[in-house]
Amino acid sequence: MRGPPTILAVLGVSFHAAAQDSSSLVNTLQGAGLTSLASAVQRANGTQAGQGLLNQLSSGNHTLFAPNNQAFDAPGVFAATNNSETLANILAYHILPGNFVNSSMNSSALDSGVLPNVTLGHTLLTNSSLVQLEGNKPQVVAWSRNDSNGQIYFLNQRPQVNVVNTTNVGNILVATVNGVLIPPGNITSVLEQNNLTAVNGLLNMVNVPGFFPNGTNATAGTVLDANSTHGYTLFAPTNEAVEKAGSSLSSFSNNQTALLALLGNHYVNGTSYYSPQLQSVNGNSSNFVSAAGQPFNFNTNSSGTFVTSGNGASAKIVKSDLLTENGVVHVVDNVLVNTQSDPSRASAAYASATSVAAQSSTQTGPIGGLSTSTSNSNSTSNRTSDASSVHAVSAWATLLVGTFGWATVMLLWA
Ligand SMILES: *[C@@H]1O[C@H](CO)[C@@H](O)[C@H](O)[C@H]1NC(C)=O
Ligand SMILES: *[C@@H]1O[C@H](CO)[C@@H](O)[C@H](O)[C@H]1NC(C)=O
Ligand SMILES: *[C@@H]1O[C@H](CO)[C@@H](O)[C@H](O)[C@H]1NC(C)=O
Ligand SMILES: *[C@@H]1O[C@H](CO)[C@@H](O)[C@H](O)[C@H]1NC(C)=O
Ligand SMILES: *[C@@H]1O[C@H](CO)[C@@H](O)[C@H](O)[C@H]1NC(C)=O
Ligand SMILES: *[C@@H]1O[C@H](CO)[C@@H](O)[C@H](O)[C@H]1NC(C)=O
Ligand SMILES: *[C@@H]1O[C@H](CO)[C@@H](O)[C@H](O)[C@H]1NC(C)=O
Ligand SMILES: *[C@@H]1O[C@H](CO)[C@@H](O)[C@H](O)[C@H]1NC(C)=O
Ligand SMILES: *[C@@H]1O[C@H](CO)[C@@H](O)[C@H](O)[C@H]1NC(C)=O
Ligand SMILES: *[C@@H]1O[C@H](CO)[C@@H](O)[C@H](O)[C@H]1NC(C)=O
Prior knowledge:
The protein is α+β, with helices and mostly antiparallel strands. It has helices at 5-18, 22-31, 35-44, 48-57, 69-73, 77-81, 84-92, 187-193, 197-205, 220-225, 239-250, 256-264, 275-278, 343-359, 389-400, 406-413, and strands at residues 62-67, 95-97, 119-122, 140-145, 152-154, 163-169, 172-177, 207-208, 218-219, 232-237, 267-269, 286-289, 295-301, 304-309, 314-324, 327-332. The protein has a seven-stranded mixed β-sheet with strand order 11-10-16-15-14-13-12. The protein has a four-stranded mixed β-sheet with strand order 2-1-7-6. A three-stranded antiparallel β-sheet has the order 3-4-5, with no helix packed on it. β15 (314-324) and β16 (327-332) form a beta hairpin. The radius of gyration is 22 Å and the shape is elongated.
């Protein structure tokens, strides 16, 4: 919409044809100065996966996040896109089926609530070496709009990637972006990147005995990351939160049952719930079941979205939608100190989640609907400080020292 008229003309003329012929898509991208993307598309077209993508783009409404030439010049991008199979995966992560246009704005405005509201959509990336979500769902991409400068930017991308221009042409909303979007990594790397060292420490210190078929132990982190784990929603306390909870945690640091339940009460097993799905709708709060079989309640008010565990322990979500290969993490400002568990309720909830995921078809358009709220911009809370990380790690270490066998309990109720 903000592009020079000449480029708009080129895009406008050619994109209709692109619906029929993938080579005119390439011409169009070239005409718009997106020459690196154009040659990437051509290289990907040499693979079956890449050809499938181009065919899919040609029918129905799509959103294409189109990296500009500078984006391809950034360090690391060549390595990530050099191999044409890998390149096909990367391109798939830039294409979203469906409409992401904000109907209250002009027809080529990408929908996005003002921060902290997040808009998410499923991409075309399904390759199981990179994505293991429930029901084989494709990976999602998340973005938000900066209240101060109006910029739409992506979550989970380092360095930050922004939308620099949008143009509605034919069946495709082309949103030019200034970086190549990299699909999410595993839980350990995501926690590390976000300074959630205390939770990472916990996941790495906990042994799950006999988790592997050959009978050897795995860490809780490995269990969450395992190929057999499809979908989870983890509420990860900040390092400060862990430090703050230190004394109440130490009171049961030798009780395996309690520790197991504590971890289980921080995630949903089998479903990835993104932030729009956690917010209360018309005053009704969402209810889910934790991996320890306890209720999870969510409510949103003028100070933000809160998660409450079955015993009343409550925390505010301070940063949402950290994506992983097989789930999603939301950062919270308190440890949910709940050591109760209900194993049969937990496995029933998991079974139900798995069957729902297998039946549901992939959604096109924004997950959880269009975000409409424009208030409540609380950007300063979107920070986790690493100042206390050392203390927090040692708090978990103290908590977990000598806690052999807690994973045995985990297997018992799993
Ligand atoms: C992709 O490959 C197909 C078959 O080889 C060819 O017909 C088509 O023109 C190619 N498209 C592009 C954009 O290179
Ligand atoms: C595509 O989008 C247009 C306008 O944004 C809408 O009118 C049309 O119904 C959509 N088509 C499909 C197949 O969803
Ligand atoms: C998945 O991606 C890998 C490369 O990361 C590639 O070797 C493989 O062929 C892809 N699988 C499919 C089904 O496209
Ligand atoms: C998990 O899946 C990946 C990709 O399909 C494979 O390379 C790896 O060996 C699997 N790991 C285990 C522990 O099965
Ligand atoms: C939002 O914009 C302000 C003002 O330009 C900037 O200081 C801040 O870093 C931006 N935040 C994000 C998350 O992009
Ligand atoms: C058991 O399986 C795990 C995961 O596949 C592997 O890492 C480990 O080396 C195996 N251990 C033995 C003793 O075979
Ligand atoms: C350990 O914790 C569980 C769950 O909170 C509790 O039922 C049990 O009584 C505790 N055991 C001891 C020895 O404190
Ligand atoms: C919002 O909800 C939380 C959790 O229920 C509560 O602690 C807080 O006081 C509420 N804030 C407002 C402004 O209503
Ligand atoms: C999820 O629940 C199933 C069934 O109870 C269990 O086998 C699995 O280990 C659980 N996964 C996680 C990550 O808790
Ligand atoms: C497996 O975990 C159990 C419980 O934490 C521990 O007792 C055992 O020594 C571990 N085995 C190995 C080989 O690390």
